[in-house]
Structures are given as C-alpha cells and as structure tokens.
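Final report, Chapter 2: Outcomes

The project's central promise was a pipeline that accepts a single protein chain and returns its three-dimensional structure in a standardized token representation, suitable for archiving and comparison. That pipeline is now operational. To close this chapter, we reproduce one record exactly as it appears in the project archive, with the input sequence first and the structure output second.
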Amino acid sequence: MLRRTTITSALLAAAAVCGGPAWAQGIKLPETLTITAYDTGTSGFNIAVAVGKVFKEKYKSDLRVLPAGNDVARLAPLKNGRAQASAMGIGAYFAAEGVFEFAIKEWGPQPLRVMMSASSCNAITLNVAKDTGVKEVKDLKGKRIGIVVGSPALNQNAFAILAFANLTKNDVKLVEFSSFGAMWKGMMNNEVDAAVASTITGQVRELETSPRGVVMPQTPASDKSGWERMHRIGPYFVPHKATCGAGGLSNTNALELPNYPYPIFMAYAAEKPDLIYSITKAMIVDYADYKDSAPGADGLDVKRQLLTWVLPYHDGAVKALKEAGVWTAEAQKHNDMLVKRQDTLGKAWTDFSKASPPTDKDSFTKAWMAARKSALEKVGLPPVFD
C-alpha cells in the first residue's frame, strides 16, 4: 500500500490564505499518483503537469502523467488499476454511455465520475488549415478531415461540427491516424485539411505559425437549426465565445465556436473516496498556484464547474465541492439522475452479456445498442445514441 503524506503545519499556514485552516486540513495524497492524459504538448497534458507540480511542491506527492493517443489507451490503465485518474476529453462521456469504441465486449459502459473540469476562454473545434481557403463550416465539403482510430471523442466532435452545416462524413474525405499527435503531424505535412483540438493546444499554435496557417470556422449561437443538428451528434457541446488561443483570439477578437469542459479530471466510481476528496480539494485550495502555469488551467476555478452536465461527480469530489460552498440541491438532484443512468446502463450490460450476445463484432455492437436503448427508455431516460 502506498504511504500517504500528510500536509505539514507550514503548508497548512499557507493554505489558510485560501480558505482557513479548517478548509485546508484533510488533504492526504500518496507518495505517487498516476494519471493519464492526451499526448505530450496538448493543453490537457500541460494542465495535468501544472497541477502535478503543485502536488509535488506542497504535498510531496509525485504525479506521473502518462500520455496516450486515444480514449481506450487513456482508460485502460485506470481499468487495470495502474492509474488512479485521467485528464480525459469527452471520450469519458462516451465510455460512460458504452457507445462507439466502448460498445464492444471488452468494454461496455464504464462507471466514471468527475472530480474537476476546466472551462476556460478557449474552444474545442475544427481547426482548419488557412491555405484551404475555408471560411465557413459549409466550405469543408470535399475537404480532408482527420480522425483518430480508437478516439470517439475527436471523431464525434468532428462529425458534430460538420453537422452544423448539414454535412456528414460522406461529404468529406476522412483520413485515419493512429493518435492525436499523428493527426496533427498530418496537418503540418499537408495530409489533412482540418482536425479537432482546443484552440490553445500547442499543435494548433504550431500550425498557426507554419506556412499553412489556421482558421476556425464559426458556429454562431443564433443559427438555431445548425445547433440543433450539432446537438443530435454532440449533445455535450455548448455555444461559446472563444477569446484565447491561436488565430488571433482575444477579448476584442472573439469567435463563436463550440465548446465543452476540457480536460475532465475523472476516475472510476470505485476509486477510494478519501483519495478523490484529497485530489479535488487540493485542486480547489491550490488553484492560485497553478492557474497561470498552463493555458486553460484557469478554467479549473471551482466557480466555473458545470455541476449539471452529462457526467456525475465522484462522492469524494462532492464532499470537497460541498466544503467549497458550490454544491447545490439542484446539483445533487442532477447527480442522482446521472448515477441512476449509469446504474441502468451497468445492469443492462450485465444482462446483455449473460444472454449469449453475438460473437461477431459488428453484430455485437448492434445488439448492445438496441439493448441499451430499451433499458434506458424503460426507466424514462433518453438513449441519446441510437
């Protein structure tokens, strides 16, 4: 068992500035923590490293950040007990729902819980090479769109944004890559014309300064039909005015783009509540020490948490959020509904697995999606994914 390090009296005094000794006490982190994240250089990876630096300085806890090229690779270490948490993208939602790459025998719906998530001035959108001449989403018709094998988050995001302009994957040329990093190398090498990423990701800034340049086609909130089409594929997206990142984004040069929290620091529901409580509480208490250390880290402000979103919070995180004074009765009611949804999906998966499902992969997925839909509708919950 890993030895846990208790915060020293000196650190307690420093933390008192953030909320008083009573609030600062109780943070106990192990000597080593392991989390997974997107590839090196991404905003999610950089934010995780920034948080880890504070954990090391204040709690003598080494936070190992393991980069992984797709959602399956990011979750596997958690599932196998080799990591405690992950700085995920929206792939966490797809895994919890048991859809796309997780609608297979080896996975199914995963009981994932949020600790904290970042909602900053950036956006998550299709970044397009400027040399393509694309100005609006509709101009992407016939263009090369990057997708990543085993990464439903990136791929579904791309399809959702294309849907804003009433385009489908049949209207573009899909180019497959093995990882997020490989896809962005493809952008630099003119193998692809557009790829999903946060506007503050290092690879997008690299594209901006390259001969190709970068543009971000807008998705105006006023286009209600466009957003309705987008939400059919990406219900987690929200309209957003992006003011930071590549493409000259600023407070005086904002673009209307889609967004959702990223990274999403999450863990399995079975992870120890005391550990998740300590991680979450440390991220809240020490926010001032890391918020300026990486682009987008300021989005982890406790007051910016989306408490009624698409994923439930971990019990340990709820305890920390209650102590921070932000958890509400509405948030608890919504969380209970989401936990019920996950419990329903878990039971449906167990029943489905016991009923001798098809062995063929495609037939298995099709049968599971039908069982999933039936189980959710039976308890009055929308299936979202057919």
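Archive annotation: The mean pLDDT is 92.
This record, like all others produced under the grant, will remain available to the consortium after the project formally closes.
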